Amino acid sequence: MVRMRDVAARAGVSPGAVSRILSGDTALRVSAETRERVVTAARELNYIPNYAAKSLRTSRTRTIALIVPDITSAVFAELTRGVEEEAASRDLAIVLGRAERLDEDRGWLRGLVGEGRIDGAILQPPDGTTPADVEALIVPGTSLVLINSVSDGPVSTIVLDDGAGIAKAVEHLIALGHTRIGFVGSPVGSATGIRRQAGFRAAMHDAGLAVRETWMTDRGYAGEDGREAVRDLLERGPMPSGLVVANLNAALGVLAEIHAHGLRVPSDISIVALHDVWYADATWPPITTVRMPLRRLGTSAVTALSNGSGTVSHATIDSPAPELILRKSTSAPPTR
Amino acid sequence: MVRMRDVAARAGVSPGAVSRILSGDTALRVSAETRERVVTAARELNYIPNYAAKSLRTSRTRTIALIVPDITSAVFAELTRGVEEEAASRDLAIVLGRAERLDEDRGWLRGLVGEGRIDGAILQPPDGTTPADVEALIVPGTSLVLINSVSDGPVSTIVLDDGAGIAKAVEHLIALGHTRIGFVGSPVGSATGIRRQAGFRAAMHDAGLAVRETWMTDRGYAGEDGREAVRDLLERGPMPSGLVVANLNAALGVLAEIHAHGLRVPSDISIVALHDVWYADATWPPITTVRMPLRRLGTSAVTALSNGSGTVSHATIDSPAPELILRKSTSAPPTR
DNA sequence: CTGAAAGCGCTTACAG
DNA sequence: CTGAAAGCGCTTACAG
Lengths: 336, 336
Prior knowledge:
The structure is a homodimer of 336-residue chains.
Chain A: H1 4-11, H2 15-22, H3 32-45, H4 51-58, E1 63-68, H5 77-89, E2 93-98, H6 102-114, E3 120-123, H7 131-135, E4 143-147, E5 156-160, H8 162-175, E6 181-184, H9 191-206, E7 216-217, H10 223-236, E8 242-245, H11 248-260, E9 270-274, E10 288-291, H12 294-306, E11 314-317, E12 323-325
Parallel strand pairs in A: 1-2, 1-3, 3-4, 4-5, 5-11, 6-7, 6-8, 8-9, 9-10
Antiparallel strand pairs in A: 10-12
Helix pairs in contact in A: 1-2, 1-3, 5-12, 8-9, 10-11
The structure holds a DNA duplex (16 and 16 nucleotides).
């Protein structure tokens, strides 16, 4: 390993000078030639500053963590891009993590924070997270921002405008002529589930349409949850003509289960889902979706984090606005 | 931040003793009572050892990196689980990273390694990686293991038995009565692509079946690549009755494009894909797949890493054996 | 303005 | 056996 003192020796200056020159300290009065000599020496020796030493000295790591319930969910892909993009522009390293359950995984997460490995964390709390779980993560000097969730604690939060997204989906169905519209959501206890269901009710209300409780399900966001939701609906009686599904993964399950029961999409029943992912276009029929500004959510979260651990802010990302991606899973309702 | 010396003060011992007791140094002759007092003090103060200090001192980080081309691909989910599982049992932290192109991303990757942030890395080289790209990542004291790829350099490698997986798929089609079998693969330059294509040719040869070059495509593993592959096949003339697709994501595209052209799966054409992911079961029809031991690949990679940077090993994961997951996308070929 | 020196929080060889 | 002290590689307040 080549150390700073090696660079200093080669350039004929003190280690302190190397540190100042390499960190771009402009206040330093030194000849351009010396500066050049140091930079050259560093390059020639292939010098990379030791991370542990630097961070021990400064108590900063220039590293942030992005923790989501399921890092491999395609829905998070755009979010990750946004975070990476903004982090790169701020010269921040990012570590990705997964926390399916905060009470179980709190140990390592708290370790990550408490050991001083990171300067801040962007966390999407998994379903069932309690305020105490979040509180345990608050450490002086480390900033925390919650995404897609709310908190009454002293923590910054950034959420998507789920209501606007769902409204977009509802309005699309209504514009096609649907009035018998159902909602496939997730259990209470999920912050996004609450907002999406509320958004659904509000949009229906605004259109003067009644919400039929037997057409409301709350199984969850996974593909299998979507299948179960369809079975729920089928058991309860006549199906709606259109279904707003709160998550694309669940929509795949909905589509499969509907097919399995011999119904046809969209001629018997229309489907529109929240979140746009590549495979929405690879199902049959391709699924009409509402694309949400997940990338912006990512960049904003990094920005909020960078504003320091002192400030607490609450923001809703409403731009770019949710966008309807029209495919083949929606059409006018069947004539009866 | 509470430091070791705070614990020492509270327990009435020296910092050195705290260090030894907390790290479980059994050679240390100290009364059980003192040991207890130190442990209690540490817990009461909520002491967490400073990561930077420890790692500066020991030049070990107990952290490894897992770098794949696309962390959000569901295909990598199982791999990630395996890595996490084995890392946890060895008390290793893991950081996840993405490298779509090694030549571009080499900077931060090299930084990660060179700065001493990690003890080792598990890397799946993206397509188009050159030996020089990999060589630049070799740093004394940091171990590197390549997965799903080969290398003639001094680097450990672990690969899946792609040939066995593809053979399983081919044999399944043959058992159903197919003789006109095509292959949807990826471009040369992809290590897995080469192995899978070779596996296909070998399996066909073993069965005494001819490989028709017009039924071989090499677009890639993404959904869109699968669509293009189908268009290629359609342009070239009569379709095969069965298709082995080298990656499930591509298979979704294949399925969608086949539907779009009015053909039916499996009655007109059967599809079987490598890699099993939840959404294989949520398409219509659900896709028959070959499940590969990705979790084992993950655990093995961590084990290889832990064996130190000195040893170079090359392994093929052939157990658990590739498993056929029978769904609805395959049937006997159409009678003509 | 700039060099020498202190110190970040640990671990461990060494002396007692 | 165990405490005191050195030192990992940096950055930066301080003295000259």
